[in-house]
Design a protein that fits this description.
The protein is built from 5 helices and 20 strands. With 340 residues, the protein is mostly beta strands. The protein folds into 2 domains: 96 residues, no CATH class; 232 residues, no CATH class. Strands 1, 2, 7, 8, 9, 10, 11, 12, 13, 14, 15 and 20 form a 12-stranded mixed β-sheet that branches. A two-stranded antiparallel sheet has the order 3-4. A two-stranded antiparallel sheet has the order 5-6.
Length: 340
């Protein structure tokens, strides 16, 4: 048998905390795509009329290349396109005037179409030029490549600075992120000896885009590997590897169960009875053993059950060892539940 006490809002504390987990997948692992859902796509700019019966597709989900290109452009690059072959300009945003009025075409940029950082990095990189952090090709027939990581893997976001994509172990080079939303090839892997930005990573979306072909990769190995439909259609190949760390916010709920000094100082355990049963305990007609009726008798708590308002048992907390109740001081038992 048990005894019940209602908890109030003051007895419940919810605390968020972040947890990180590192992942590593290789092309030799079938889980890379079939179970985990990581996939790669090609996007192609085309002004021709969309024809779902004949337009090319890519990736294991067979997404239309034209739609991939347009979606990525709208979601992540549209606010910054300057109209000069993809080079990026500042986004048009609203101006807040001293008189309280607001002028300008937009209050904020759309979707996730914003710069991850305003740090000027052009002194250590080549590729985009003019201090740009984003580049998106707009000429007819231009290609982009997209790596998509599902939510179940990256959680709330990919931890900045943890992404790496090994492209090829025969002619090796790799892509990593700089922690500021840029994806680049390290200088050690380039002819120029400088880091070469070739795309962007959107940490909260699990999306990595490759939009630029560094001139130091000769021949155009990056485009051959990432932008060639025949190469990408076999994604992942045995020599491709992806590394990243995910971050997820969990919520710990703490229930404070307080036993006052004048509460629960008797037991409803039927083994303490001389006569009577459970029903007689409730109406006060049961007879207890002598030791259970003395002033020194103290029941022990062995478990705590949490119930809803309809008396449905939701969770049980077991104590490491029986805990005696006190007749002189309050006893508080804390129950922590990690809920996602």
């Amino acid at each position: 048998m048990g005894a019940y006490k209602k908890l109030t809002s003051k007895d419940v504390i919810i605390t968020p905390f972040e947890v990180n987990k590192s992942f590593s997948f290789t092309g030799l692992n079938s889980d890379f795509v079939s179970n985990e859902g990581i996939d790669g796509f090609i996007g192609k700019n085309s002004t021709s009329f969309f024809n779902p019966s004949s337009d090319p597709t890519s990736g294991n989900d067979n997404l239309f290349e034209k739609l991939v290109y347009n979606n990525i452009k709208q979601l992540y690059y549209g606010n910054y396109l300057s109209g000069s072959n993809g080079f990026i300009s500042n986004a048009s945003t609203a101006s807040f005037n001293p008189d309280g009025t607001i002028t300008g075409p937009a209050y904020t940029t759309n979707y996730n179409d914003y710069l991850e950082s305003t740090i000027y990095v052009n002194d250590r990189v080549t590729g985009l030029g003019s201090g740009s952090y984003k580049y998106f090709p707009t000429e007819e027939g231009a290609y982009i490549a997209v790596l998509s990581i599902p939510t179940k893997l990256y959680g709330d976001y990919i931890v900045p600075g943890t992404f790496r994509f090994d492209i090829n172990n025969i002619n090796p080079f790799y892509l990593i992120d700089d922690g500021q939303g840029n994806v680049y090839i390290p200088g050690a892997s380039t002819i120029s000896g400088k880091d070469e930005i070739c795309g962007n990573i959107f940490y909260t979306q699990g999306i990595i885009t490759i939009t630029y072909n560094p001139t130091s990769i000769s021949p155009d190995f990056l485009f051959f590997r990432l932008f060639n439909k025949d190469q990408w259609s076999g994604f992942p190949s045995p020599d491709e590897r992806v590394f990243f760390t995910s971050s997820l916010t969990l919520y710990e709920t703490q229930y404070k169960c307080t036993i006052r000094e004048n509460e629960f100082n008797y037991s409803m355990n039927p083994t303490l009875l001389v006569s009577g049963g459970l029903d007689q305990i409730v109406n006060g007609k049961a007879t207890y053993q002598d030791f259970a009726t003395g002033s020194d008798f103290s029941p022990y708590v062995t478990s705590i059950g949490l119930y809803d308002e309809d008396q449905n048992l939701l969770a049980v907390g077991k104590l490491a060892k029986p805990l005696p109740t006190s007749q002189t001081t309050d006893t508080t038992i804390l129950i922590n539940l990690d809920l996602n």
